[in-house]
Amino acid sequence: MVPDDAGQAPAMNFAAHGFVFRLGAMDDDVAQVIRGLLVEMVKRTSGPSAVDISIHRMDESSLGDTMYRVSFDGEDVYPSLNRGSLISHLLIEVNARAVQFTPDRLMLHAGTVRTGAGGILIPGASHSGKTTLAAALALHGSAFVADEVSAMHPDTLAIAPYGKPVALRPDSVKLFSDRVPRLAGPGSPFEIDERFVPPSDLGTVSTTSVEIASIVFSQFTPGAPPRITEIPPAETLHTIMSHVLGDPIDPKGTFRTLERLVRRVRGCRVEFGDADQAAELVAAFT
């Protein structure tokens, strides 16, 4: 491929569920980091992209930070981002577009892994520990399916794989740094807010959709001993409805789909301060 502009990396297409985007104009140093993290999102088939994303270096801020402008199809989505927030904000926008461009799936704010007994769906709000728990399960031998945005087929109730890099906060980085080489050293200057790892850094990655066997609502509480509590279908349904992403075209259909799901699988809550201990409890529950 020929670079878009002198000194800039060649363009590539990526897919976030139904959202296909082309990462074009950007400096080589930015491209090397971002494309190294998005390795499981590369779109290997031909076809048009939905959006062209460009990342332009700007002048330094008054505080000496290197600043970037991120545009989608020429429209500034982030007119000014400091270097350390670049990747986290880019992926926030990509996740939002993934929900918007995938109307044939029920999108859930959840992580998913696959065990020998089936898939574990982990819905949760930010800071609930869902990503940390999913990463711990993957490091304990589960196959990684998705982080942050789990796309469910309304008929089969299966979750599609999503190769978005996993976002880890400092406490999780410390927990996993001895098992994930990418986390052992300092991160790139483009990921100060959070550290990111491709799903394959955590172990096996599922390349096919996964049927759900259990739904686990996580609650990270520092210092808390791991405790898992099974909950009835009605409570499971009420809770998971609060983790539906986007604005469903058919709210009643969404409710009926999730009602079918909770009648088929077990639901539980797990409170934990140690993600590895919680992963063992959750794997045994499924």
Molecular structure report:
This protein has helices at residues 28-37, 86-100, 130-139, 170-176, 181-184, 233-241, 251-264, 275-285, and strands at residues 12-16, 19-23, 51-57, 67-72, 75-82, 106-115, 118-123, 143-146, 149-152, 158-160, 166-168, 195-197, 210-220, 227-231, 266-272. Mean pLDDT is 91; it is low at 1-6. The protein has eight helices and 15 strands. The relative contact order is 0.15. Strand 6 (106-115) and strand 7 (118-123) form a beta hairpin. It has 286 residues and is α+β, with helices and mostly antiparallel strands. Helix 3 (130-139) packs across helix 8 and helix 6 packs antiparallel against helix 7. The longest helix has 15 residues, at 86-100. The strands form three sheets. It has a five-stranded mixed β-sheet with strand order 1-2-3-4-5, covered by helices on one side. A five-stranded mixed β-barrel has the order 6-7-13-10-9, surrounded by four helices. Strands 11-12 form a two-stranded antiparallel ribbon. The radius of gyration is 19 Å and the shape is globular. It is 28% helix and 30% strand.
Record field, number of beta strands: 15
Question: Which blocks of ≥5 consecutive residues have pLDDT under 50?
Answer: 1-6
Strands of the widest sheet, in order across it, are 1-2-3-4-5
Q: Compute the number of helices.
A: 8
Strand content of the residues, in percent?
Answer: 25-35%
Shape: globular
Please summarize the sheet with the most strands.
Answer: 5 strands, mixed
- Overall mean pLDDT stands at 91
Percent of residues in helical segments? 25-40%
Radius of gyration: 19 Å
Class from helix and strand fractions: alpha+beta
CA distance, first residue to last residue: 46 Å
